[in-house]
Amino acid sequence: MVDYCELAVPGVRSLQPYQPGKPIEDLQREYGLTDIIKLASNENPLGPSPLAIAAIKKQLQELSRYPDGNGFELKYRLGKQLSVETDQLTLGNGSNDILEFVARAFVQPGEEIIFSQYSFAVYPLVTQAIGARAQVIPAINWGHDLNGMLTRISDKTRLVFIANPNNPTGTWITEKELTGFLKQVPDHVLVVLDEAYFEYAHHPTTGLDEFPNGTSLLSEFENLIVTRTFSKAYGLAGLRVGYGISNKIIADLLNRVRQPFNVNSLALAGACAALDDREHLKKSIEINNDGLQQLTQAFDSLSLDYIHSAGNFICFDLGRSADPVYQALLKRGVIVRPVANYSMPDHLRVTIGTQQENEIFINALSETIKT
Ligand SMILES: *Cc1c(COP(=O)(O)O)cnc(C)c1O
Predict the structure, then answer these.
(1) Which residues on adjacent β-strands are paired with residue 348?
(2) Nearest CA to ligand 1 atom 6
(3) Of 7, 75, 153, 366, which is most buried, counting CB atoms within 10 Å of its CB?
(4) Are the beta carbons of 370 and 307 closer than 8 angstroms?
(5) What three-state secondary structure class fits 194?
(6) In three state form, how does the secondary structure of 215-267 look?
């Protein structure tokens, strides 16, 4: 038989698939459990907006039709809400799609992509898949060392990935830090600012001081690409919709590499409706803020260290290998996320759930670490 691995392009040959959070159905099958809570994939515990569900139901009648490949309606609404032109937008099948478009459109094999240690697992995957070289900059206090990233920029560098807030650590950079960095990045290097958790960190009333809004920096920095998603605060992870915001020329190039119908019609309809439901978004953020307090207080009283987070998840430190604790939580019907694949073998990442889910998790955790 032909060695098909040898036939694969080098980047793909050595690729390790992304490891998602354990699905509820898997745990049901494996342990015969029925009461399971999943706090593993930073999903919105409130679920989707009822307006989105209604819009999707209505759209079901049209499933025989191709979706609007240009996503006119969604781009129109996003453009208005973000105060950008519609031709600055690129829609993606999740914002992961956009991360891949940028790499495919701008980076050739052998060129370099810079990102931080402990940053999103998709960055190394995208880099490897196109045969580019990853420059991984050691983190400072679990977060980005922006000066370290600047120092590593060379003639070969095409792209820098920065998640703000960062996943899996939840760390964030301030507006001053970000603009200071962007001012020093040469124009030939693109910066992808991944704002998947933006809504949690940048709320007008409950947000963090000094948390930057990437879209407001686009006019000053033409090499900046901001990505956002409906998967997190909007509670639509299953639909797969995200978007990129950039200057028009970059957006045009990104739109050339995407498939003509990369965002399906239910996703377009659901995302449009979700944008209108400001109340649901606000409630989602409030639940998250309350849950953040609930969980950090619990970690304090259990004397467990954790990384301060601006997202809808927290990494906590067990001070020893976290895997036995992960397994014990599974047996109690609680799914959290191991982060050993991020070289954080002593940590687990828990998504902030509803008050009740958090309580179940806290109880399961305290029983587990006492035994
Ligand atoms: C969840 C997440 C995304 C969003 O992925 P989608 O493809 O939009 O579901 C992007 N970046 C980071 C850092 C994330 O954690």
Answers:
(1) 316, 338
(2) 94
(3) 75
(4) no
(5) strand
(6) HHHCCCCCCEEEEEECCCCCCCCCCCCEEEECCHHHHHHHHHHCCCCCCCHHH
In angstroms, the CA 71 to CA 101 distance is 17
DSSP percent split of the chain into helix, strand, coil, nearest 5:
45, 15, 40
Please choose, from the candidates 141, 90, 116, 40, the residue with its C-alpha nearest in 3D space to the C-alpha of residue 357: 40
Pairing of strands 112-116, 133-137: parallel
- The rounded Å distance from CA 96 to ligand 1 centre is 6
Which residues have CB under 6 Å of ligand 1? 42, 94-96, 120, 163, 167, 194, 196, 229, 231-232, 237, 242
Confidence at residue 205, expressed as pLDDT on a 0 to 100 scale: 66
3-state DSSP of 165-179: CCCCCCCCCCHHHHH
Please determine, for residue 203, whether its predicted confidence score (pLDDT) is greater than 80.
no
CA of 99 to the centre of ligand 1 (A): 9
Average pLDDT, the chain: 95
Least confident of 149-153, 201-205, 289-293, 349-353: 201-205
DSSP summary character for residue 101:
H
- For atom 1 of ligand 1, the residue with the nearest CA is 196
pLDDT at 32: 86
pTM recorded for the entire structure: 0.96
Residue in 99, 228, 231, 239 to alter for ligand 1 test, most ligand atoms within 8 A of Cβ? 231
Q: Identify which of 95, 161, 225 to mutate to test ligand 1's pocket (most ligand atoms within 8 A of the CB).
A: 95
Give the DSSP H/E element, type plus range, for residue 160: strand 157-163
Mutate to test the pocket of ligand 1, among 93, 122, 309 (most ligand atoms within 8 A of CB): 122
Summarize pLDDT for 136-181 with one digit per residue, the tens. 999 999 999 999 999 999 999 999 999 999 999 999 999 999 999 9
pLDDT higher than threshold 90 for residue 34: no
The 10s digit of each residue's pLDDT in 231-266 is 999 999 999 999 999 999 999 999 999 999 999 999
Alpha helices in 258-350 (DSSP H): 265-276, 278-301, 323-331
Dist. CA 227 → ligand 1 center (Å): 9
Sequence-ordered strand ranges (E) for 89-132:
89-92, 112-116
